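Box 4.2: Ligand-aware structure prediction
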Amino acid sequence: MVTGCANMDRLNGPARLMIVSDLDHTMVDHHDPENLSILQFNALWEANFRLDSLLVFSTGRSPTLYKQLRREKPMLTPDITIMSVGTEITYGESMVPDDGWEEFLNQKWDRNIVIEETAKFPQLQFQSGTEQRPHKVSFYVEKEHVQEIMKSLSERLEKRGLDIKIIYSGGMDLDVLPQEAGKGQALAYLLKKFKSEARPPVNTLVCGDSGNDAELFSVPDVYGVMVSNAQEELLHWYSQNAKHNPKVIHATEKCAAGIIQAIGHFGLGPGASPRDVTDYSQSKSGTLTPAHEIVKFYTLYEKWRRGEVGNAESHLQDLKRTCQPNGVAVHPWGFEQPLHECINALGSCYGDKQGKKFCVWVDKVSSSQIGSDIWLVKFDKWEMVDEERRCCLTTVLLQLQPESFDGFIWVHLHQTWLDGFRNGQHTGWFF
Ligand code: GLC
Ligand code: MG
């Protein structure tokens, strides 16, 4: 039934944690131009979870609007993308569709009948063409009419032989879907599939803020977080259906900060992001991983250029210590430079992005041990300056330094522009 699950095979065994998160007003805070909480989440995910866990986005958006959001916000690449309120599932970065799922949804579904019947309700206003999908017909409706419309529309459609589901979200959106569709059903389908492959995730955490997320919280055995800014319709559903479920919380933190809070609350991992660490000196605890080292480095790098690091000179010395004396960087435009020179150049650019909207994040961090003390780490490194963004495919060789301190030394750095960023500027590029 399932085709093209390339990225699910990124992990050989069960995922340690599978996060299934809504996007608008859950992972993505549209009221925060600095994108603070999603950047915190990104750092936590890449440092602690990317290697052995699965990230699933579950959104009401169509593929068109989902891709638009990815261009606007610093979003990670998920392993699985569920779109159009659980009616479309795709795998991996190339978004290979699960055709079996769509075929399955054809049962007792006829779009034309839905359109005929909904036309009889003048209070229903069609959403834009991009949001009308093979198994989803969507409208705007005023709150006061919702109850009555949901009731009589479902009666009419039932009479016409359809088995449908009507979902109300965000105090204004009304979606008509096949009964078997929805965010909860799509998740149940994925969990069943992992089970059939003998690798169900060890833990699953669902995250949402509005009506179309409610179903996620009734999937058996999952942890759930409703972010602090959750909509009335979801909180109402919760008070009626899930109030006594100890595996679901209403966070006190907004959006992605609420997800981090839940990770800590349920003991699924650290309840704080590496971005919030203020001590950049090497950890003595011996718990650093190559992924963590990369995230930590770019967190410092971003704060450095924003001019937000206290005690700059000592950090510069620390950075030098973490680069091998004869280590080399190959910049994305092909220029080779000793790592120590890169650090010197960075030193003289302290605070050069002050007053600008500047942020840095890494995506898709993978690492493999290629020698007794050497790791090859690959990732996409993103920089956003005001509204402009650039991405480099980056490879770093890290060497463990057990004697001098408990951390890694950068031996080699190699970067190439991601397609479409080849004309990126050369100036002001260091790592
Ligand atoms: C997203 C979709 C919209 C849908 C809403 C609620 O905003 O774009 O079509 O109605 O989610 O599910
Ligand atoms: Mg939402």
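In the box above, the bound molecule is magnesium ion. The two ends are 44 Å apart (CA to CA).
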